[in-house]
Design goal:
Pfam families: ETF. With 165 residues, the protein is of the alpha/beta class. The chain is built from 4 helices and 5 strands; from the N terminus they run αβαββββαα. The protein has a single domain, classed as Rossmann fold (3-Layer(aba) Sandwich). It has helices at 10-24, 43-51, 104-112, 151-160, and strands at residues 28-32, 54-65, 68-75, 78-85, 88-92. It has a 5-stranded mixed sheet, with helices on one face. Strand 3 and strand 4 (78-85) form a beta hairpin.
Length: 165
């Protein structure tokens, strides 16, 4: 799908992907965890809502068995495994796999294959995001901290300077 990236927000991308999924009918849709440009982590969840499909997020392991898929993800307390019915959407964590690299002869063969190019309007999507960046600014500078040499010095500073004890 050819589009101007600056005009696409997460919702527009999810709607385009929904059009592709409706046309292709895949059983398993794999997406990255978050966008590289704005770090938003929204497209997978929005696509799941638009399709009404189950979703497993932040997958570090995936196992497909028949018409089910098990997704293991890391959480604060360890690992969590969920089971989803296909079709399903999975957003991946960097631990899911190690990428393999295509050999040069295969790259050359792929260049000769015809590409079916589409535009967002082919999927009924108006490529005009409703989000606008108002401003971006650095955080306020903070004062440097003070190192103390002993617990006694720390207690003294907390008592007399900070007046918190």
């Amino acid at each position: 799908v050819e589009a101007d990236d600056s005009q696409l927000g997460a919702l527009e991308v999810a709607k385009i992907l929904k059009g592709v999924v409706d046309a292709e009918q895949p059983q398993l849709i794999l997406l990255g965890k978050q966008a590289i440009d704005d770090d938003s982590n929204q497209v997978g969840q929005m696509l799941g809502a638009l399709l009404g499909a189950g979703q497993g997020t932040f997958a570090s392991a995936v196992k497909v068995e028949g018409d089910k898929v098990q997704v293991t993800r890391e959480i604060d307390g360890g690992l969590q495994t969920v089971e989803l019915a296909l079709p399903a959407i999975i957003t991946t964590d960097l631990r899911l796999n190690e990428p393999r690299y295509a050999a040069l002869p295969n790259i050359m063969k792929a260049r000769k294959k015809p590409l079916d190019t589409k535009s967002p309007s082919d999927y009924g999507v108006n490529p005009a995001t409703k989000l606008k960046t108002v401003k971006v600014e650095a955080p306020a500078e903070r004062k440097a901290g003070v190192q103390v040499k002993s617990v006694d010095e720390l207690v003294e500073k907390l008592k007399n300077e900070a007046k918190v004890i």
